[in-house]
Amino acid sequence: MFYLSRAEQVALFAILGLLVAGAGVLSHAKGQHSADTRRSQPIFVPADEGVDGQIVVDVSGAVAQPGVYRLHGAARVADAIERAGGPAAGADLAVLNLAARLQDGDKLVVPTRSDISPPAERNPSAGASARRISLNRATPEELQSLPGIGPVYAKRVVAYREKKLREEGRGFESTDELLNVPGIGPKRFAAVRDLVAP
């Protein structure tokens, strides 16, 4: 049997202790280096939709599959409607500018014919109103037939209508909303008030 003297035992335990201590120091140093490396690495942040060339749009109203869709950055209103399964029965696309560009976060509401029909069409007995120009259906050319409304103001009226249709799903609800169109003040509004209907 192998025996060690007292001095040899002490020396052996001292060497083993040094080895264990050294291993602990080495392990700690390695762990610290790993933590420092992790801290120095950049934190992954998902790219913004506007930066990576895509946008996210909420499509609702008269479409086959309403929902939130991811589209390419140059998407138009027509692209969003197609992505949502196309127009549903009764959708009135004539009042939308299908070529309008969309932006990230837009809400597109596709109206139905009943949503934007002027009161005169719902109520045939409203004789005089039936002869008025509908702010929700008029083309820029028809709007230019109104006193004081040239090409610039006609475009502004159409732009206001399309913005409301995209964001709220309805166009003009009253003729008084013409006052919200840039450049149409009380004087110009008074000249056309009796010639238009929502």
Give a written overview of the molecule.
The structure is a single chain. The protein is of the alpha/beta class and 198 residues long. The protein has three domains: 43 residues; 57 residues; 81 residues, Photosystem II 12 kDa extrinsic protein (DNA polymerase, domain 1). Helix content is 42%, strand content 11%. Strands 2-1-3 form a three-stranded mixed sheet. A two-stranded parallel sheet has the order 4-5. β1 and β2 form a beta hairpin. The longest helix is centred in the N-terminal third of the chain and has 35 residues.
Layout of SSEs?
Blueprint: H1 6-40, E1 54-61, E2 67-72, H2 77-83, E3 107-110, H3 113-116, H4 119-122, H5 127-130, E4 133-134, H6 140-143, H7 151-168, H8 186-192, E5 196-197
Parallel strand pairs: 1-3, 4-5
Antiparallel strand pairs: 1-2
Adjacency order of strands in the biggest sheet:
2-1-3
Q: Please identify the top-level CATH class of the largest domain.
A: Mainly Alpha
The rounded distance between the terminal residues' Cα atoms is 111 Å
CATH topology of the largest domain: DNA polymerase, domain 1
Rg is: 36 Å
Q: What would the principal axes of the Cα set say about the shape?
A: rod-shaped
CATH architecture level-2 label of the largest domain = Orthogonal Bundle
Number of domains: 3
Instruction: Name the CATH superfamily classification of the largest domain.
Output: Photosystem II 12 kDa extrinsic protein
Q: Helicity, in percent?
A: 40-55%
Structural class: alpha/beta
Helix and strand pattern = HEEHEHHHEHHHE
